[in-house]
Each structure stands twice: as C-alpha cells, then as structure tokens.
Amino acid sequence: MDATRFTHVTYIASSPETIWNALIDPKMTAQYWQNDNVSDWRVGSPWEHRSSGEDRTLRLVGKVLECAPPTRLAMTWVFPSDAGDEAKHTRVALDIEPVPGASRLTVTHDRLEPGSAMLAGITAGWPKVMSSLKSLLETGRALPKLW
Fold it and tell me: pLDDT per residue over 28-62, tens digit each?
C-alpha cells in the first residue's frame, strides 16, 4: 500500500492544557465535533469515536499509541468495519506546542490509502473539526455542524 500523509496546523489562543483537555474530554468533543472520544488514554488502551446524543453510533475505533499530556497524543484510527484489517489502520498524532500568546496544534494523519474513503473523509473533516475547536476555545461557541 502506498501511504499518504495529511497535516493540518491550527493556532489557538489557549493554553496547551486547555487544548489537551478539549481533545480527550467527551463533553468537550461533543461540543465541537458532535462526537465523543472515549478512552482512559493510557498507551495501549482502546479508544472509540461515538456520535453524541442518543444513538451513540460507533464511528471510529483504535488504540492509544502515545499519551504525553499536554503535548502529544497519538492513536490508530480505523472504521469499525475495517478493525480486523491491520492494513486499513491509519495513525493520527496531535501535537500541541506553546507559542507566544497561543498554542500551535498540529494534526498529522498518516498511513492513509490513496483514493480511500478514509483519506477523503479526513481531508475534509480535520480542518472543520479543528476550526470548530478553535472557535469553541476562543469564543465559547463551537461552529454549527459543518459535516
């Protein structure tokens, strides 16, 4: 498989600790992502990405690869229907770095199959999700659902 990488950088007027909490707290992800990220966030632990609200549809699964609060979180990322196929598992790293007056949040999503539904979804999705996170942390309001 020819691997593809997607990178998105966002600057947020917030501390690394606040951004970190927003990435791992299901109550926060429900606001800007309309999904809950659920895990104990220990290396090797599973994580789930479920729709918020009553239906709780399982959207993505994976396992935590790295957890270094408040600077780096990395995990595998796969559709539940593809969980048994290691070749379909992609990898996401979220790196948070303080910069004067703000923090830089870099999303690196790699091991993506060219032309795949996963690549199409994350290429459109990550900028929307990160923009909504930025809006929530800077204004107190997430963007309306963009997807």
Answer: 999 999 999 999 999 999 999 998 878 888 999 99
Closest CA to 69 of 25, 26, 27: 25
Cβ atoms 113, 4 nearer than 8 A: yes
Q: What is the pLDDT of residue 14?
A: 98
Mean pLDDT for the chain overall: 94
- Asked whether residue 57 is domain-assigned, the answer is yes
Contacts 24+ apart (CB under 8 A), 121-124: 122/6, 122/90, 123/6
| Domain count along the chain | 1
Q: Is the separation of the CB atoms in 1 and 7 below 8 Å? A: no
pLDDT of res. 1: 45
Q: Model's pTM, two decimal places?
A: 0.92
Asked if residue 147 belongs to a domain, the reply is no
Which CATH number fits the domain that encloses residue 57? 3.30.530.20
Range of the domain at 81: 4-139
Bridge partners of residue 146, in order along the sequence: none
Q: Residue 145 domain-assigned?
A: no
Q: Which of 22-26, 52-56, 67-71 is predicted with the least confidence, judged by mean pLDDT?
A: 52-56
